Amino acid sequence: MIKYGELTTKKANRKVFINLLYENILKMLGKTPVSIYKDRVRMYIECEDYVLEQVVAKLKKVFGIHSIVICHKVNTNIEEMEKKALELVKKQEYHTFKVETKRADKTFSISSMEMNQKMGGALLKNTNLKVDVHNPDVILHIEIRREGTFLYTNEEKGLGGYPVGIQGRGMLMLSGGIDSPVAGYLALKRGVSMDCVYFESPPHTSIEAKNKVIALTKIMNEYSLSIRLFVVPFTEIQEAIYKNVPANYMITIMRRMMYRISEGLAKKNKAKVIFNGESIGQVASQTLTSMQVINEVTAMPVIRPVACMDKLEIIDIASKIGTYETSILPYEDCCTIFLPKHPVIHPELEKAKQYEKSFDYESLITKAIENVEVVKDFQETSFQKYL
Ligand code: ATP
Ligand code: MG
To answer: CATH topology for 73-153?
Structure first.
């Protein structure tokens, strides 16, 4: 049984939310044999025991699910209920319990109160457990419905958030670092479906660096299943910058180019907003002055989900979502290769514009966008050809 996450309060949206969540769950479960039913408050996924673990693991990667409750369905007769109840409370080392019965099927002749007593009695007789109605170690829930009786003890937390896709599409600037995959995850959590853009500069950046970004996209895609990765050939632009721009402004100009290309790709692919992993003050290009000068090239909103987080908080999320281990692999990205010793901390917009005039960046940008490579199949088999 699935309880929905944070639902918008408007009635019409609720329906859209639930339908999209349903579609996303179907997509996530793929060929796993299950039956799914939904209503306004819950979704029920029925499966055999042998796939249960797999189903729960997949559901734990679906945004829009508040909690997952593993219910056991038995026929509505006292013997079967007692047997299952015993099995459930014996699973762990509980000391105290409480029974909570809900009788949705009023044709069942025993009242909820009587059922609580009856089942409580059976547990007291057959185990060493004691009753504690205020603060029990375990609550045995019994829901008597027309289609059968559902028993459950615990509720597992889902990811929360909104179903991916409810907000339309964003374009994430994805490097091989720790921050940008976390930024992408947080955007997905708010219901944004995502495409990613990665700037590569071979031969200054290696195939390993690219594979690392593909691997990170693959991990993020487990939460989305619809991510495409655009790999932008960035070498010519980077070399032009190296040749024409004073060292301390190289990063500023490079990032202005990245923003321009990200915007171009976003527009081409119907993404509304750019996302990236910038965090205030982390490096010279992420001071407020730098952000202002870099952001000036686009009118498209740029959202920085980790802007106000400490590095340790970001690392914490990266570990939880499974990107950290890949992010810390040692391969360089294109920023580090041309890294000047003293990048400007407070760049001036007029200077940046002036330096950009020294080469024909517009045609280089058009060319880079035209020659983008699209990676969109992250299944194991097709992944091999990249790794
Ligand atoms: P990260 O850990 O995400 O790499 P960072 O702390 O290394 O971030 P920068 O290298 O300054 O910071 O990059 C800031 C942001 O710019 C990144 O989070 C990412 O969104 C984007 N970015 C940087 N390099 C690239 C790249 N090669 N391709 C795509 N996006 C990039
Ligand atoms: Mg980086």
So the answer is: VC0802-like (3.30.2130)
